[in-house]
Amino acid sequence: MPEDFRNLSSLRSLDLEKDTYYDKLDLSNNKLRYLDFLGGANLLTLRWLKLNGNELSVINETALQCLPALTYLDLNNNPLTCECSNVGFKQWVQSNNQTQVVNGHQYICAFPVSQNGNKFLDFDTSSCWIDAGFFCFVFSTCLILFTLLASFFYHFLRWQLAYAYYLFLALVYDKRRGRKGSSHHYDAFVSYNVYDEAWVYEEMLPVLEGEQGWKLCLHHRDFEPGKPIVENITDAIYGSRKTICVISRHYLQSEWCSREIQMASYRLFDEQDDVLILLFMEDIPACELSLYYRMRSLVKRRTYLSWPQAGQHTGVFWQNVRRALMTPGSPTDNPTMSFFQIQE
After folding, report:
1. Could you give phi then psi for residue 25, rounded to 5 degrees?
2. Number of other residues whose CB lies within 10 A of the CB of residue 271
3. pLDDT for 57-113, tens place per residue?
4. Nearest to 306 by CA among 260, 264, 341
5. Residue 335 lies in a domain
6. Which structural domain, as residue segments, surrounds residue 62?
7. Shared domain check, 175 and 118
8. CA torsion sign, 309 to 314 to 318 to 319?
9. Any idea what the CATH number is for the domain that residue 205 is in?
10. CA-based torsion, 60, 63, 68, 74: positive or negative
11. Rounded mean pLDDT of 287-299?
12. Same domain flag for 196 and 89
């Protein structure tokens, strides 16, 4: 380096663009962090470059490739990073036969902390060659295929899959609870929404309990105080021969009513007995019914009782309820149950 460049402690700018005849350049201890400036310096004859004692952590090998005559490079005492960002420089050091990298085999990793103290040329670069674009392509393709298959199964096979799912849950539940063969304390558990409570107490109880003598289980009257609501529901359903669901739009919107008919569906699938009686308080299109109601149509393709269609013939309605309660439960024991079949 010419003497004119020594001891320039206040130098802030240096334009080397037109100075193409430098043979040596010493930029040691200048707190340099990047070498990108070499790309535009046009140093075609530079053979000797000293950069030790700077703050170079990531070195862009393309900047060094802009020095076609370089034969000597000193990068000692720089905090090199042993990460994928330095893979190109590592390869350049190992494959370049023209440039002597002074003590290159002794360069030490400064970052990350887990690599601190290890040899720079020894850090593992195998993970750096993972093709992220290819993996994104594979992942997105699998996601699209999964979405298409899920849509197909949901549209064409959702009821069959749901049946298999709830049958499996019923089997697991029954083995865990050990309730097969348990005695029944009630003839029927009545599942209803609070908005339909008046109908239950004013219309149902006087007929089924008062006139016909059935023993019914009701939430507010027969649930055990202090016991978790889920356990009360489970005990009521499995402790009754049948479950009567009083279905209205309020019922369909109730979380707890949904849980009750879920549990009744588990028992229905598990025991393969007709333990579920559906009483519709209003005409509800099949498209508005949730999975559990349509499930029963899939399993047994049975009829349902409709209070609005009973009209003035409420006696016939309650007679059909009595017949449903009297049947032992096999699907063939109750061939003529009621007024209408839900249309799919």
Report:
1. -145, 120
2. 15
3. 999 888 888 889 999 999 999 999 999 889 999 999 998 889 999 998 899 999 888
4. 341
5. no
6. 3-129
7. no
8. negative
9. 3.40.50.10140
10. negative
11. 57
12. no
My answer on whether 10 and 118 are in the same domain is yes
Give the integer Cα–Cα distance in Å for 82 and 58.
9
**Are 171 and 309 in the same domain?**
yes
User: Which tokens go with 19?
Assistant: 């100075």
Judgement on whether residues 79 and 9 belong to the same structural domain of the protein: yes
C-alpha–C-alpha distance, residues 82 and 120, integer Å = 6
Reported as a pLDDT band with limits 50, 70 and 90, residue 150 is confident
Q: How confident is the model at residue 37 (pLDDT cuts 50, 70, 90)?
A: confident
Q: How far apart are CA 296 and CA 303, in angstroms?
A: 10
Two tokens, residue 10:
């206040």
As a dihedral over the C-alpha atoms of residue 266, residue 272, residue 274, residue 277, rounded to 10 degrees, the angle is 20
- For residues 191 and 295, state if they share a domain: yes
As a whole number of angstroms, the distance between CA 282 and CA 64 comes to 83
The answer to whether residue 135 is domain-embedded is no
Domain count, the chain: 2
Q: 50 phi and psi, to 5 degrees?
A: -115, 120
Taking residues 8-17, report their average pLDDT. Answer: 58
Q: Which pTM value belongs to this model?
A: 0.46
